[in-house]
């Protein structure tokens, strides 16, 4: 994995242009501190900042075919590269890098090879035989990628906004599951799974098939030549990832190189829900567990760095990215270069607490489809950029292409949350791993209620952020918010505070358009807000905003506060905004 930057067809092959490309590439050096590379062919420049994980000795980029007529710079992990090499018997590979297959596959199959890749990737391929290029991004958008256009007719590609925002007239997010060819000059979707149409599937629920598919997704991601670990919050998703990794690690190449003892990592405020649960899971699995603490002030002090690196002003993403950003720095300091994480499960299985209010299986399924399609703007962006800020890679098995196909083909009636039948959120996943003979996890962990990461690290984290923002954003400023920020107008002081910081780093209109907006409650899409009329008055992305569902919902906390200090001291805050309503439980 790494950071990539390409400038294509810029009508300038001067030394000054080369120096500028190198300068911009260095803005991505945090993503790949192990090596830098630049290939120039006429007025095309392909730059690369490498984080060496597979074949660290010889896998430096750019990568080439045999005669160097095809040049590739790629940010990715190709998990089926060994099988693909076997399909290319007449080709000679220069390195053992998993990404070395890309140039050779293009020679054999042209643009159609992209769907053959099983993994996560963003790449730029330059074919010097006809001076054409091809750009592609992985199915879900686990890797980050942007595209821009210069006034001179050039096309720019970069892993992060900061690599191109100052030099392009217009730029935007490169859409996941798409490719862009210089021959067509337009995006084409290469990823076309059955679920993408949002048609309602009808396959019966097969717990063993679901379990096997996820185990395979985890196992294939244990491909490594460097030390790694697992992010463990103690919730269902990360605990399952840790359990499967611990169960299968012993027989892998990684275990032979680095030992069969799995390292796990968790972050939170002291006394946070995640810390207690993670320690219990770590003890159960026998991992070498590393628990990191941060204070609310530590997080607040890091906010500007977080926004610079994750390149968004979305409230939920910033709340969750900050502890992950702090933890990633600690993990990297231990010599670990990549981690395996649990993102994506809530979108696939309807794990967010607002799914309790889904009116029927059709709307339940369509909302999961919408959530998966939007992952690249939220959790994938967070997981990728908050870790890469410190040169740490995150791998996400729940977003494996084959696993998604299996999980999204289940009749959504089986995913519906039905407390009266003992079915809580993500019941189909929990049931698949509820093995009495060879348990993966303790029962109470397997059936623990969903905590959003920004909540689970400690409830006072969000409350502290709101209080801090209130000190920097006045009521008068909020009155003018729609005039200052007409696009995605911030409706809380916290959102306004983040927006000010973002605009300072990325002032271009194209930059603000890369960030999603719209009404949301407990991480819902705007469409799902319609499921409950009460939600429109409580548009907060925290899981505790799912009134009547979360065990520590705001309404319960408000009632407790009323009993303690009297309603007259609580009601005025509720009338003004959600700020300050949630108290630490």
Automatic annotation (TrEMBL):
Active site positions, chain numbering: 2
Keyword field contains Amino-acid biosynthesis: yes
Natural source organism: Arachis hypogaea (Peanut)
GO (cellular component) term, any one: cytosol
The protein's name in its UniProt record: Asparagine synthetase [glutamine-hydrolyzing]
Residues covered by the Glutamine amidotransferase type-2 domain: 2-185
Pathway: Amino-acid biosynthesis; L-asparagine biosynthesis; L-asparagine from L-aspartate (L-Gln route): step 1/1
InterPro entries hit by this protein: Asn_synth_AEB, Asn_synthase, Asn_Synthetase, AsnB_N, GATase_2_dom, Ntn_hydrolases_N, Rossmann-like_a/b/a_fold
């Amino acid at each position: 994995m790494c950071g990539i930057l390409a400038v294509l067809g810029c009508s300038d092959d001067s030394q000054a242009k080369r120096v500028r490309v190198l300068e911009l590439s260095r803005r991505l050096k945090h993503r790949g501190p192990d090596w830098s590379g630049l290939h120039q062919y006429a007025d095309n420049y392909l730059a690369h900042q490498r984080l060496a994980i597979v074949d660290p000795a010889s896998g430096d980029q750019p990568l080439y075919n045999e005669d160097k007529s095809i040049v590739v710079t790629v940010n990715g992990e190709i998990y089926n590269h060994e099988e693909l090499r076997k399909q290319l018997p007449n080709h000679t590979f220069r390195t053992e890098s998993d990404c070395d297959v890309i140039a050779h596959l293009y020679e054999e199959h042209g643009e159609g090879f992209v769907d053959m890749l099983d993994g996560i990737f963003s790449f730029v391929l330059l074919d010097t035989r006809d001076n054409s290029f091809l750009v592609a991004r992985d199915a879900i958008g686990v890797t980050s990628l942007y595209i821009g256009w210069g006034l001179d007719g050039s096309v720019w590609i970069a892993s992060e906004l900061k690599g191109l925002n100052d030099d392009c007239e217009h730029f935007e997010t490169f859409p996941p599951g798409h490719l862009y060819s210089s021959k067509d000059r337009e995006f084409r979707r290469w990823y076309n799974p059955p679920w993408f149409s949002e048609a309602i599937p009808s396959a019966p629920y097969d717990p063993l098939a679901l379990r096997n598919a996820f185990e395979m997704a985890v196992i294939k991601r244990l491909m490594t030549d460097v030390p790694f670990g697992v992010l463990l919050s103690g919730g269902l998703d990360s605990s399952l990832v840790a359990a499967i990794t611990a169960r299968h690690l012993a027989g892998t190449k990684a275990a032979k190189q680095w030992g069969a003892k799995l390292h796990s990592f968790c972050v939170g405020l002291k006394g946070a829900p995640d810390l207690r649960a993670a320690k219990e899971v770590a003890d159960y699995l026998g991992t070498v567990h590393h628990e990191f603490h941060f204070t609310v002030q530590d997080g607040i002090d890091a906010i500007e760095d977080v926004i610079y690196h994750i390149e968004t002003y979305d409230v939920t993403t910033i709340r969750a990215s900050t502890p992950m950003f702090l933890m990633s720095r600690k993990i990297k300091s231990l010599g670990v270069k990549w981690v395996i994480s649990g993102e994506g499960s809530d979108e696939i299985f309807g794990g967010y607490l607002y799914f309790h209010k889904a009116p029927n299986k059709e709307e339940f399924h369509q909302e999961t489809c919408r959530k998966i399609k939007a992952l690249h703007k939220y959790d994938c962006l967070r997981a990728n950029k908050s870790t890469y800020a410190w040169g740490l890679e995150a791998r996400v098995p729940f977003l494996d292409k084959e696993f998604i196909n299996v999980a999204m083909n289940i009749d959504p009636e089986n995913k519906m949350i039905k407390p009266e039948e003992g079915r809580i959120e993500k019941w189909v996943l929990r049931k698949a791993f509820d093995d009495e003979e060879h348990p993966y996890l303790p029962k109470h962990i397997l059936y623990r209620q969903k905590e959003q990461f920004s909540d689970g690290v400690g409830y006072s984290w969000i409350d502290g952020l709101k209080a801090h923002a209130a000190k920097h954003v006045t009521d008068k400023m909020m009155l003018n918010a729609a005039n200052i920020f007409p696009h995605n107008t911030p409706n809380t002081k916290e959102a306004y505070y983040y927006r000010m910081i973002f605009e300072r780093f990325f002032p271009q209109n194209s930059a603000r358009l890369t960030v999603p907006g719209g009404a949301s409650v407990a991480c819902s899409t705007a469409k799902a807000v319609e499921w409950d009329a009460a939600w429109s008055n409580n548009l907060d992305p925290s899981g505790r905003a799912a009134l009547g569902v979360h065990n520590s919902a705001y309404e319960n906390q408000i009632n407790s506060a009323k009993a303690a200090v009297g309603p007259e001291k609580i009601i005025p805050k509720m009338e003004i905004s959600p700020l300050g309503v949630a108290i630490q439980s």
